């Protein structure tokens, strides 16, 4: 009985941790703050996706803003 109880506690703890990570991932996606919170997990389990996200971020930073119709020419 003691071994079964220890097994049950371990499975419950593992389920709680995995459930918490799933909840955190859904919340992060909704808010758009995924890079700072879920970045390390993505780097571990999906390195190609992590590298692609870094490339997208670099390209966004490189983008030159388009001038508005009323702006003066330089």
Description:
The protein is mainly alpha-helical. It has a domain at 25-62. It has helices spanning 2-31, 34-45, 47-62. Helix 2 runs antiparallel to helix 3. The longest helix has 30 residues, at 2-31. The mean pLDDT is 82. This is Secreted protein. Keywords: Membrane, Transmembrane, Transmembrane helix. The chain crosses the membrane at residues 6-26.
Count of DSSP strands: 0
Poorly predicted spans: none
Number of helices: 3
Mean pLDDT: 82
Proportion in helices: over 70%
- Quaternary structure: single chain
End-to-end Cα distance, whole Å, is 81 Å
Shape: elongated
Sheet/helix structural class: mainly alpha
Largest sheet: none
- What is the element string, with H for helices and E for strands? HHH
Strand residues, percent: under 5%
Helix-strand blueprint:
Layout: H1 2-31, H2 34-45, H3 47-62
Helix pairs in contact: 2-3
Which short descriptors sum up this protein?
transmembrane helix, mainly alpha
Short synopsis of the structure:
The chain is mostly helical and 74 residues long.
């Amino acid at each position: 009985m003691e071994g079964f109880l220890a097994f049950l506690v371990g499975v419950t703890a593992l389920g709680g941790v995995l459930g918490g990570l799933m909840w955190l991932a859904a919340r992060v996606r909704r808010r758009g703050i995924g890079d700072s919170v879920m970045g390390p997990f993505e780097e571990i389990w999906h390195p190609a996706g992590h590298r692609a996200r870094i490339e997208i971020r670099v390209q966004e930073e490189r983008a030159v803003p388009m001038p508005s119709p009323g702006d003066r020419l330089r």
